[in-house]
Amino acid sequence: MTLKELVGQTTILTVARKAPFGYFLTDGKEDVLLHKNETDQQLEEGEQVEVFLYVDSEGRPTASTVIPEVSIGHYAWVKVTDVKPDIGVFLNIGLQKDILLGKDDLPVHKSVWPETGDMLYITLRVNRSYLLYAKLASDQVIQSISTKATRSSFNKNIQGYIYRTAKVGSWIYTLEGFKGFIHESQRNQEPRLGEKVEGRIIDIKEDGTINVSLLARKQDSLELDAARIYEYLISRNGAMPYTDKSMPEDIKERFGLSKAAFKRALGKLMKEGKVYQEGSWTYEKKNS
User: Fold this and answer.
1) Residues in a beta bridge with 100
2) Residue 92 three-state SS
3) What pTM was computed for the model?
4) What is the CATH number of the domain that holds 110?
5) Domain, as residue range, for 15
6) What is the pLDDT of residues 188-199, one digit of tens each?
7) What's the family (predicted)?
8) Going by C-beta distance under 8 Å and a sequence separation of 6 or more, which residues neighbour residue 126?
9) Are residues 149 and 209 in the same domain?
10) pLDDT per position as a tens digit, 241-272
């Protein structure tokens, strides 16, 4: 097997000789450069060393003593370092050179592409020119590393990363190791691939996978809605042309709320003595 055929994998090579810019390693047939930027080790001729092989910008195999968690056939969570709309996103696997996840392997809509700092679960693949690229984990791979949820997890808060997106919803892998689905009705906006999100478990299926909601719990939502309305009222010097009799479409346009949610939040503010209604207006209630 040639060294190029080992690109994307680890192997043990022997130090053939030192060079001003690093070391040349050999398998007995071919030599490969271990650049000084790719190692923190002091090596001697004849010493064996474990290295990871990849191809440099000129198409030559090169070595690193940094052994990434991810390699051909092995998966790991890696961080997005850069986004190039024309070609894809770059990922840090620990080498001097970041790895590309091409745009053809990303969602059609760039609005849900990963951003810098997001995390993706990937393996590596090699093309015909022996260049390394990232490859997203399939649903089956995520299933193989997941933990089955039990009924005791119902309604618990969770955090996790989005590993797949679609119009009907998003798929999540939680920090507990649960594999879950977020239906489009259970999110205010579609999360990005690789985005870390917080939600709660709303169903546990027989196979141990979960359904997740990213919407605020009813009480939390009520608090947020009331705060939004009150903030808007204050921004208008304590008076706004909206009441519980306002048209649903006007409420939706201004606050992004249904009329029912608006009435609940307004009722909360009135009960707390913060506002009162008069005619078709709502006013801040000043403390005397």
Assistant:
1) 90, 133
2) strand
3) 0.75
4) 2.40.50.140
5) 4-64
6) 889 999 999 999
7) Belongs to the CvfB family.
8) 7, 8, 72, 132, 133
9) yes
10) 999 999 999 998 998 888 998 999 999 999 99
Mind listing the pLDDT tens digit for each residue in 104-134? 999 999 999 999 999 999 999 999 888 899 9
Which residues is 119 bridged to in the sheet?
Answer: 79
Chain centroid to CA 194: how far? 2
Q: What's the structural domain count of the chain?
A: 4
Is residue 70, in this structure, part of any structural domain at all?
A: no
Average of pLDDT values for 193-214?
94
Give me the residue label for tokens 């053809």: 104
For CA atoms 131, 134, 139, 145, give the dihedral sign. positive
**Domain membership flag for residue 71:** no
The mean pLDDT value of the chain amounts to 92
274: left (phi over 0), alpha (psi -120 to 50) or beta: alpha
Give, in degrees to the nearest 5, the angle at Cα 35 between 33 and 38.
Answer: 120
Share of the chain above pLDDT 70, in %: 98
Which of 213, 248, 270 is the C-terminal boundary of a domain?
A: 213
Alpha-helical segments (H) within 146-258:
218-235, 248-255
Query: Do 233 and 186 share a domain, yes or no?
Result: no
Which of 100, 79, 76 has its CA nearest to residue 89? Answer: 100
Q: 3-state secondary structure string, 34-91?
A: EEHHHCCCCCCCCCEEEEEEEECCCCCEEEECCCCCCEECECEEEEEEEEECCCEEEE
208 and 147 part of one domain? yes
- Write down which residue in 137, 171, 189 finishes a domain: 137
Long-range contacts of 22-28 (CB under 8 A, 24+ apart): 25/49, 25/51, 25/63, 27/3
